[in-house]
């Protein structure tokens, strides 16, 4: 038995669950601060696991702290279909980024259970660990380790600003759920679908509630440290200075001029700068800054990355520079067959759709090399995301979940 457009999600229930989840880590301005592997995420797990167990979904986790809630299929030998996103947020994040994907998948699977649908394949709702990368860098740790992009040992060794290690927090998370079994890391699966807010304005401008994502543009990130020598602001003459901030200023100006300008498809950002010792009358001895670089063309992205490293070395002057690559994720495409299933669902339900490219990175990037994968976008108001005012309309939330219901039902019946 498979679902048809006559089977639809309970949009009111989905919306209420989104609002209830947003209470965990709620901020005064209406946003959410729910960091990866924090007490807030443990509370979110408890809530979502409870909703899943109420309809017979079996919870499980893996060594890197991903969460799975599984609706059993008729054929235990068939590979499962995965659908979901993540539960962690930015420090001043919104109610929908990540959370919509997890709860839309949970709602779709819940409706299948309520309708008495037994798919051929298992369907597992997934919440990937640390997609955002705000507490522990880089992001997408759960999906990267699952996919074999990074090693579990390397991820466990990463620490946050307080010196707390990922490994210790994964262990704490697992200890909070002693009755949730662990499954193998990186198990095979048949397909993956990730619903998400667009985080841009193409859907809103086109008045289309559904986006069929063709792929994700490439992304590279670095942590760059410029080291000089501190000194008295009033006594050290210019010729003797090793001013790390002055070197950073030269480097940053060239990066903006030579990489950040002239290509409308290039996305160049210096998002974090830390100056030490950060005292008014002391010559800065150290500047640590981050660079986020994105482009849909892998060749252009690689060339820009090589230029960035040359500019940093050339601009250091009498200082030294340490360039640490963090993320190197080429642009990727998604499965066209699943894309056609998304389109067929939208057409059957009378929902306008648009095919587009994702400018932001998502866990689906790491699933695509492993099995047929796709993303479903819904609009977010003014394209605002990673901010407290992030907003999605209830009717768009419902539309995205209904399309997901159709798609995963089809995938799980084949």
TrEMBL record:
List its EC numbers: 3.5.-.-
Q: Domain Peptidase M20 dimerisation, which positions?
A: 216-315
Q: What does UniProt give as the signal peptide span?
A: none
Q: Which domain of life is it from?
A: Bacteria
Please list the GO terms describing molecular function: hydrolase activity, acting on carbon-nitrogen (but not peptide) bonds, in linear amidines; metal ion binding
Q: Which InterPro entries match?
A: Amidase_Cbmase, Bact_exopeptidase_dim_dom, Peptidase_M20, Peptidase_M20_dimer
Provide this UniProt record's keywords sorted from A to Z: Hydrolase, Metal-binding, Zinc
The Swiss-Prot or TrEMBL record lists the needed cofactor(s) as: Zn(2+)
Residue sites binding Zn(2+) 2 per the record: 97, 132, 386
Co-factor remark = Binds 2 Zn(2+) ions per subunit.
Specify whether Cell inner membrane is a keyword of the entry: no
Q: Name one Pfam family in it.
A: M20_dimer
Q: Kindly give the NCBIfam families that the UniProt entry links to this protein.
A: hydantase
Recorded family membership = Belongs to the peptidase M20 family.
Q: What is this protein called?
A: Putative hydrolase
What species was this sequence derived from? Hartmannibacter diazotrophicus
